[in-house]
Amino acid sequence: MKEDFIPYGRHQIAEEDIQSVVNTLKSSYITQGNAVPKFEENIAKKVHAKYSICVNSATSALHLACLALEVQQGDIVWTSPISFVASSNCALYCGAQIDFVDINPLTGLVNIDILESKLEEASKNNKLPKVFIPVHLAGASCDMEKISALSKKYGFSIIEDASHAIGGNYKDKPVGSCSYSSITVFSFHPVKIITTGEGGAATTNDPKLAENLKMLRSHGITKEESKFLKQKLGSWYYEQQSLGFNYRMNDIQASLGLSQLKRLDCIVNERNKQLDFYKKIFSELPITFLDIPPFVYSSVHLAIIRLDDKLTHKYHEIFEGMINLGIGVQLHYYPIYKNPFYKKFNFRYEDFPGAEDYASRSMSIPLFPGLSNEQQLRVKVAFEKVLG
Ligand SMILES: *Cc1c(COP(=O)(O)O)cnc(C)c1O
Known about the structure:
Layout: H1 15-25, H2 35-47, E1 51-55, H3 58-68, E2 76-79, H4 86-93, E3 97-100, E4 103-104, E5 109-110, H5 112-124, E6 131-133, H6 144-154, E7 157-161, E8 169-170, E9 173-174, E10 183-187, E11 200-204, H7 207-216, E12 221-222, E13 239-240, H8 251-262, H9 264-281, E14 287-289, E15 296-297, E16 303-307, H10 315-324, H11 353-361, E17 362-365, H12 373-387
Helix pairs in contact: 1-8, 2-8, 3-4, 3-7, 5-6, 9-12, 10-12
The structure holds pyridoxal-5'-phosphate.
């Protein structure tokens, strides 16, 4: 890669992050010490949730969230086709069936009218989902109040895939407060808002779900005497009560997360400023940005542009042209149902005109902590060149 290549996203590691990790490395515990519980406590406080459970990735958190809500064979789960494949794979891990709800291509978020009519149709055919997983694309929350009202009417649970959205708000409540959902999931992969290297978290206000998530991330084992189903046979005793996994986060990761979380507001503020600057300098170009709904404060995980109609036939030319000029662009995301693995489910592309339109014209452009105005101007100049 060229030295002056500007990636679409990257992590920011500060001196205090390094110190925090070094302190853990020099301590008595590098896994299962104090850092993970402390990180969990701080996440819960930050997003106004009662419980937070850290795991080794958002993918694991989504899997455990489905299991905690008892998703199994014979169940149906719905999510957005414009997301990372993990939003949908988590249902398949549990043996459930997956289906997609089309998006509004102007926001990239679930189209509530389509969700409502799809639910109406499903209720007639006895095919209602057990769980719906709305995806807060690019850091902007879906309209959770409306989704929550529909969940009560049609009897499904909600897992928010907020992998992009820690630090954002919906109607003045932090994303992750689970005011309108059973569980919210965050990702701490290095391209996301804050990082633990790899890592994720699930938040919830339900003590039973929290307990289940905790057991499932560690083999389905409990060491708490009050939870034992059989008599304690000695101080060594623990019980495996369900089939869980080793999805634990370690203290090295959590100590990085603890340090990063302190800067969350600062990072999200900088991301919003960078997006505003792009909007200003791009005003003359035949390009618009994804709309952010009025009730939302986005964490701006991604700056996603939309090419005007007259440019969509040149999408690939523009995309490769930008890469050749040293600008990291990316499509977030190619519709999940178009992946070869999903072919066997026989989704019809024409059932998702919003997703198809979105994917024909959208691309993420560089945005990350530390990106300079000068670099942002370079992105604009590159567009001027490739657009001719
Ligand atoms: C990144 C991402 C995930 C998976 O996160 P990992 O921590 O890498 O497992 C899931 N959903 C969405 C929307 C993501 O962007």
